[in-house]
Amino acid sequence: MAGRRALGRRFGWLWASFAVSSYGTGLGFGAFPFMAILVLHSGPTQVAVLAASGRAVGALVAVPLGPWVEFRRKRPVMIAMDLTRFAALLTVPVAFAFGLLTFAQLLVVSVVVAAANIAFNAASGSYLKALVPPEDLLVANSRFESTTWTSTMLGPPLGGAAIGLFGPVTTVMADAASYLLSALGIRAIGGTEPRPERSGAPRLRAGDLLDGWRYLLAHPTLRPLLLNAMVVNGLIMAAEPLLAVLMLGRLGFSPWQYALALAASSGVGGFVGSRLARPLAARFGAHRVLRVSGVLRACWPVGLAFVRPGVPGMLLVIAVQLGLVTCIGVFNPLLATSRLEQTAADRVARTLTAWSISTSAAIAAMTAAWGVLAAATTPRTAIAIAGVLLLASPLLLPRGERQWAHQEQGKDPSPTSLTP
Question: What is the C-alpha end-to-end distance of the chain, expressed in Å?
C-alpha cells in the first residue's frame, strides 16, 4: 500500500512541510472574506472581487516566474516562496492590531500569496521529480493528495471555531506560521542541489515567458490533459458559489448544514480516492484508471441541479460530493504523476507554472461567466448547464496508447541529481 512504502528521510521532510502548510491553509480558509465582512464591513461585490482577483491577478503576476524558477535551485526557491507568504500574511494581523487594515491590503496580500503559490508548486514539482525515483512518483503524489483532503476536511471546521472564539485574525496568523514552519522543514531536507544549466540565451527574454505553453500545446499527451483540467476545474468551481446561493438562499439550508454537506463528504471522498489511486493503477494500469476516473468525475455534478429543501436535499449533496471527490482523489495523483513523467526534467518548472496559470485563469473566467448566467436565468439553471457541459469533458482526455507513448524523462531524471 502507498502509505507503507518508505521514500527516505528527505521526502519525509518534504511531506511534513507540505502537511503543515496544508493544515495552515485549511485553518485559514475563508479568513479574508470573513475579515472583509466582519472587520471592514465590505459588501458582497467587494467580497466577490477579493475572492476572484487574488487568483486571477496572482496568475498574471506569476507569468515570468516559470522561466525564473526553472534555472534556479528549487529548494531555495521553495523556502523563499514560503517566507514570502509568511511575511505577506503577517502584515494583516500587524495592520489590524494598529487599526490600519484596509481592503486594498487584503487584495494585495491575496495576490502575493497566489503568485507565490504558483512559484512554489512549480519548484516543488521539479524538485520531487529529481528527489523520488520514477516508480515512486505515484506513491509520493498519493500522499500529498491524501494530506490535502485531510486538511480540507479538518482545517475549515477548526478554523471556523477559532474565528468564532478569537476572531478571523487568529487563523491568518496560524496560516502565516505554517509557511514559516514549512520553510524550516524544507531547509532541514539537507543535501546539495546542482544549479540547472541554462540553454540558449544567458538572460530571460520576453519569448521565454511562453515556453511552458509552447511545450504543453505541442505535447500530444499534456495538451489534452491541460484542456480537460481547465474545463473540468473551471466548471466545477464556477458552480460552487451558485450552489451556496441556492442552498443558503432559496432552499433555506443553514450555514452549518451547507458546510457539513460539502466539507465532510469532500474530505472523506478525497482521502479514500487518494488511497485507492496506487492499488488501482497497479492492478488495472495507470492510464486506464486515470481515464476511467476522469470520466466518472464528470458524471456527478449535474445531480446538484436537483437539490431540494430538507434532509433529502442535503443527502443528495453529500452523495454527489462524495462520489465526485472520490473520483477526483483517484484522478489527481495519477494526473500529477503522468504530468511529471511526460515532462522533460529541464522544463518541469515552466510547464507547471503555465499549467497553474491556465487553470487559474479558466476558473476565474468561468466563475465570472456563470455568475452572469445565473443572474440572467437562475442559479439552478446555471448549475445544470455546467453539469451537462461537464458530461462532454472526457472527450478531451487522451485516447489510446499512442497518445500516452510520448514520454520524456529529460536530461537526467534519476534521483542521483540530488546528492546527499
Answer: 27
